[in-house]
Amino acid sequence: MNKIGVIGDLINSAYGRARRAWAAKDLEGYQKLAMSQTQQGSDFIDVNIDSTTRVSVKKEEMLAFLPDLIPALQEAATTPLCFDNPSFDFHKVAMEAYDFHKSAPPIINSIAASREQLDDFMGLIKQYNASVIVIASEKLMKDGSAPCETAEDVYETAKQFVDMLRTKANTKNNQIFIDPGLPPVGADTQGLVNMGLDAIKLMRADKDLEGIHISVGLSNFAWGIPKQLRATMERAYLAVAGELGLDFSISNPDHNPTPLSLDDSYVTGLKDALQQGRPMDGEAMSEAGFRQASAILALVTADDDDDDDW
Amino acid sequence: MIDYAELNQFLYEGKAKKVVEIVQQALDDGIPVSEVLSEGLIAGMAVLGEDFKHNILYVPEVLIAARAMKSGLNALKPYLSEEDKKDKKGVIVIGTVKGDLHDIGKNLVSMMSEGAGYEVYDLGVDQSFEQYYEAAVKYKADIIGMSALLTTTMPYMKTVIDKFKESDLPNMKFVVGGAPINKEFADEIGADGYGADAASTVEVLNRLMAAV
Question: Is the domain of B79 the same as that of B170?
Fold first, then answer.
């Protein structure tokens, strides 16, 4: 199996370390996170300094901090950065502050059908020859956007964006990272994990998409399941999706985000649960979805020894 | 006789068929619908919400239990009298805001609120003020729930709240939540409540309804 690249996601105020660095505007704290993730083998360092449920961040505050933060990160490690924010203004400021001589081009994370200013994004990507993550789980509609409902939707969206990026931003396939979407598996009663996996297959079968990267945000996948199994389940997903052609993940380097062996019981268990999530003839999606949720629950609680006295 | 502890337990374990069986038996035995609802179903869900909040339960367990709750509610519904219906806990209209297509958290809140006895109208994703307003009028909503995952879409929550203030429903109550949303933001935009997660959102709804 091919290697799965890592976009280290520890610079995100959902993590305590990053939250403390943000609160103190502690550049050294951020530098430590860039260095440690580089030592752990990250190919890119994700930079997300946005609001979370625990910290309120104003857009102006973020934009004012970037010109200090970015040079500090690039000084600590030359690992290229991956700027993680939905707003165009954020990326414009980030591109201006980024030293393109010091590190390889950064990733703009992300564009999607629902983003405002898509044309501005195209101009920025072109101007800086940046790489880009495309969220392909939402599709372009005549007047706006909607969530993708099938793997074909995701695949068509990926093709549309690849085409748009080529013509409007001169982007090459290997600068494009398609994210087919990855929900928390424990809450996935709508078949969305399967939708993403099927979309990976479709994309990898298309010669025109040769050379694109396929990436997911992994840290959300195991949300809501037992803590001690989160890393294992993330690695099980990497095995299942990696086999189909996933080649990057935005993930926590502390979790060793490498695929488990294909014969590991969590990999076969996950595959089996996902198979149970596929509706049988005439069956409603929710029936299959709850069967999948039950199978996932059984997989992650099999070793719970509730009756132990210790 | 109905064993409420047993019904609560089956609900907790998400055994939908057992829940429906017991509910049906109780109704056949002539036990008041309102009693089965409050002591059998809503009380069971309250325990579940509490354990979920304290990480004793995992997300798939809660989903499966919420589904069993829904089966139980559906079995009860035909027996509800007009009087019982008037007794309802409250009407919630919920959806993710305009430009935001992320609905996993919203779906959880929707299920948990329904399980807690609320009448929930889930509008889905990408909702404009006009859509919230129309639904609020149509369903006589007590509270509107808004969710957002993106910092670019969360300002629209304030737009909705402001427009309601200027409408003929200026006293509408709002609860907001989502990954980038916190108490500070909720207060700033004039929301009446902040739902940090699905279980605590139900508590916020209870608090707001108690004040009505």
Answer: no
Judged by a CB distance cut-off of 8 A, whether residue A55 touches chain B is yes
Q: What is the ipTM of this complex?
A: 0.90
Q: How far is B74 from chain A (nearest CA, A)?
A: 16
Query: In total, how many domains does chain B have?
Result: 2
DSSP A42-103: -SEEEEB----SS----HHHHHHHHHHHHHHHHHH--PPEEEE-S-HHHHHHHHHH--TTTS
CB pairs A-B closer than 8 Å: 84
A288 near A278, Cβ under 8 Å? Answer: yes
Of A50, A187, A297, the CB nearest to B108: A187
E runs forming strands in A74-163 = 81-84, 107-112, 131-135, 138-141, 144-147
Question: For A241-276, what is each residue's pLDDT tens digit?
Answer: 999 999 999 999 999 999 999 999 999 999 999 999
Chain A residues whose CB is inside 8 A of the B63 CB are: 186-187, 189, 290, 293
- A228: contact with B, CB 8 A cutoff: no
Distance from CA of A146 to the nearest CA of B (A): 7
- Please check whether the domain covering A5-266 is classified as CATH 3.30.360.10: no
